[in-house]
Write a structure and sequence with these properties.
Layout lengths: L6 E8 L6 H10 L7 E8 L6 H11 L5 E5 L6 H11 L4 E4 L11 H9 L5 E5 L12 H18 L11 E4 H5 L10 H10 L6 E5 L15 H16 L4
Helix pairs in contact: 5-7, 5-8, 7-8
Length: 243
């Protein structure tokens, strides 16, 4: 049975993205969602040290037709903490996570919505490792690390995902709002994957997406320490099933 969605909440954690935030907001603005679905943008500034907040506020003032809600943390708590703030404030039937950089293309929202609108999915992951969409060629060891973490996560959850660490995750809002989330940094990805995998009768789909990766010089923030934390989270929330 087809799923009816009136609103999609787009959760956008930001930290020191003054140079790119207006580009991603413009991309989201230009997207027309399938079946007349409206957009709610939830922008969470995790206490940026640059002019990110002022750029966002100016953008909101110039684009009053957009439904943008802005929140700012008083201290830097981490990406996971920003996501938790946005998830808690979301009012759409479904929500999607959108990084503030330009690595992921909002024009593909409809691809992720497709399994939901057809009545087949509760959760959809966008995979950078499947499909024929463009993928920027960057770091060999970073890719191996991603695939290794996905492999470990799959062992713990008995899922067969190809890209657990992807930014693009689409959730039924009430479902994710009822999950207790504890990780404040990049441990969010394995934690939420482990916890949703234990929801009875959950329907998880995966679709291929494009990927326009950044180098560290261009602003990429994740590093090897986050990979170690991800392994810890896979063990804690996946293998040990700690809530």
């Amino acid at each position: 049975m087809a799923e009816y969605i009136s609103k999609l909440s787009i959760v956008i954690p930001v930290y020191n993205e003054e140079k790119t935030i207006h580009f991603i907001l413009n991309k989201i603005k230009s997207v027309t969602l399938a079946e007349g679905i409206s957009k709610e943008l939830l922008v969470i500034d995790d206490c940026s040290t640059d002019n990110t907040s002022s750029v966002i506020l100016k953008y909101i003032d110039k684009n009053k037709e957009l439904d943008i809600k802005f929140y700012k943390h008083k201290s830097n708590l981490g990406k996971g903490a920003a996501l938790k703030t946005g998830i808690g404030k979301a009012t759409g039937e479904y929500l999607i996570i959108q990084d503030a950089d330009l690595e992921y293309d909002p024009n593909e929202y409809n691809d992720l919505l497709s399994p939901v609108l057809s009545g087949n999915a509760d959760v959809v992951y966008g995979s950078r490792f499947m499909g024929s969409n463009p993928h920027r060629i960057l770091f060999f060891w970073h890719t191996i690390g991603n695939k290794f973490l996905t492999f470990l996560s799959n062992m713990a959850t008995n899922l067969n995902l190809t890209d657990m660490e992807t930014c693009y995750k689409l959730f039924k809002t009430e479902l994710i709002q009822n999950v207790t989330l504890r990780e404040n940094r990049f441990g969010f990805e394995p934690e939420i994957t482990a916890k949703i995998s234990r929801i009875p009768n959950i329907r998880i789909y995966e679709v291929g997406i494009s990927y326009y990766g950044r180098t560290y010089e261009e602003g990429k923030k994740i590093n090897w320490k986050d990979g170690i934390r991800a392994i810890y989270c896979i063990v804690k929330y996946g293998f040990l099933k700690i809530n």
